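Q: C-alpha cells for this one, please.
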Amino acid sequence: MYFENTGLENIQVDFTLLDDIMSRHGLTKEGQWDYERVTYDRKFIVREGTYYLRVFGYAITGDIDAGDAVVKLMKPVVGKHYYPHGVEYGEDEHFPEHLIKSCVEVLKAIKTEIAAFEIKA
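A: Here is the predicted structure, written as C-alpha cells:
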C-alpha cells in the first residue's frame, strides 16, 4: 500500500543527511542500495504479521556509494512479509489500522526533519 500525499515524494536531500535522519526514525538501508538507488526499511512485528515500511530514493546527482549524492525520494509504501517469498504490497493485502497509524506518524516526523534541509530544484 502506497502512502499518498506524505510530502516526502519528490523531496531532494543530501544523502548523508538523509541517512542520519532515517536512522533516527528506525529506518535502515542494510544492503538495499547501489550506486544510484537506496531503500530504507523499518520492520514492524505485530500480532497480524511482519510488515515493512519502505522509503525509496534515487540519486539525481553524485553517487550513493561514495556518499556524495543528492537523493530524490519516492512514495513510501508498506508491505506484508511472507516467508519465504518476500514482501507483498498489493491491494489484496490487509494492513491493520494501528500499523498504518504508526507508519503515518513516522513519515510525518521524517518529513518535518527533512523539510529544513530540502534542496530546491
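A few notes: The chain has a mean pLDDT of 93. The longest strand covers residues 49-61.
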